[in-house]
Amino acid sequence: MILLPILILCGLIALYFLFINKKKSAGLPVELRDTYHLMLNEHISYYQSLNETEKIRFQGMVNDFLRDVRIEGVGTAVTELDKLFIASSAIIPVFGFGNWKYQNLTDVILYPDTFDKDYQFEGGDRNIMGMVGSGYMNGKMLLSRSALTKGFSNDAGNENAAIHEFVHLLDKADGATDGIPASFFTHEYAIPWLQLMHQEMLRIAAGDSDINPYALTNEAEFLAVAAEYFFEQPLAFKNKHPELYIQLSSIFKQNPGQA
Ligand SMILES: [Zn+2]
After folding, report:
1. Which residues, in sequence order, are CB contacts of 114 under 8 Å at separation 6+?
2. Which of 118, 121, 201, 229 has the greatest CB tally within 10 Å of its CB?
3. What angle, rounded to 10 degrees, do the helices at 219-232 and 80-94 form?
4. Which residues neighbour 138 within 8 Å (Cβ) at sequence distance 6 or greater?
5. What's the CA-to-centroid distance between 228 and ligand 1, angstroms?
6. Ligand 1 centroid – CA 23 distance (Å)
7. How many angstroms separate the alpha carbon of residue 63 from the centre of ligand 1?
8. How far is the CA of 141 from the centre of ligand 1 (A)?
9. CA distances from 166 to 51, 87, 202 (A)
């Protein structure tokens, strides 16, 4: 007689797992998938270059990001397109890592324009396009809406301020924002990567490189600036900086410049 309750229990457990699996494999609702697809396909060139399976995975990661991270505007309304731009900037650098989740991010705060170190976005000398918060701002990222939008426009060039900030966040995942994202590559890569960075920094300083001289600030800025170029213009980056391309490809575990 004891067999019957056990059988019923096993049946219930099986049903539970069947239900969970079904929920997982159903993914995004079709309407949302269509909306995301249309907007991403129109505005995000990185997304356009993905195959169908990758596009669906990208949509899912965008959806998860928007579920997990709060996005709020200060002095500006946040549109659906802003949200997709922010989520895409977050997903592009981690798309090679499988189901990566940003552990050190709870909020993205969108300012209408560039801001200063006191977070003022009107008047004065404002040149900050984005920032990963520290201290009491830990877990928060600040972004300028104008810079965010420009990064996904046709005149973005090699630059994308939001991708830049998410790369800082990845760099910070090992506890140090130092241009060596130790969580993402094995130890023996660190020295050649540092050497390569320093060689290119000399070229930038001599005016012999098309990498934004802001990369000279320090190794962390070099990584973020080079990553913007790597994701924005992968073919040009691969042609002009083949060694850096190989290193970034190995750090980010993707090959956006493949023919
Ligand atoms: Zn930076």
Report:
1. 121, 126, 127, 128, 129, 144, 146, 147
2. 229
3. 110
4. 104
5. 11
6. 39
7. 26
8. 12
9. 24, 10, 26
Tokens standing for 24?
């997982």
Tens of pLDDT, residue by residue, the chain (259 residues): 566 666 666 565 555 544 444 444 346 778 788 889 999 999 999 999 999 999 999 999 999 999 999 999 999 999 999 999 999 999 999 999 988 889 889 999 999 988 888 888 888 788 889 999 888 889 999 999 999 999 999 988 999 999 999 999 999 999 899 999 988 777 788 889 999 999 999 999 999 999 999 999 999 999 999 999 999 999 999 999 999 999 999 999 999 988 6
The secondary structure of the chain in percent helix, strand, coil, rounded to multiples of 5, reads 60, 5, 35
Q: Is residue 161 within a helix (H) or strand (E), and if so which, with residue range? A: helix 161-172
Residue 154, both tokens: 């046709």
Separation of CA 43 and ligand 1 centre (Å): 24
User: How many residues are present in the chain?
Assistant: 259
Amino acid at 141: M
CA of 106 relative to ligand 1 center, distance in Å: 19
- Type and span of the H or E element at 141: strand 140-144
β-strands 70-73, 107-111 pairing: parallel
Dmax (CA) for the chain in angstroms is: 86
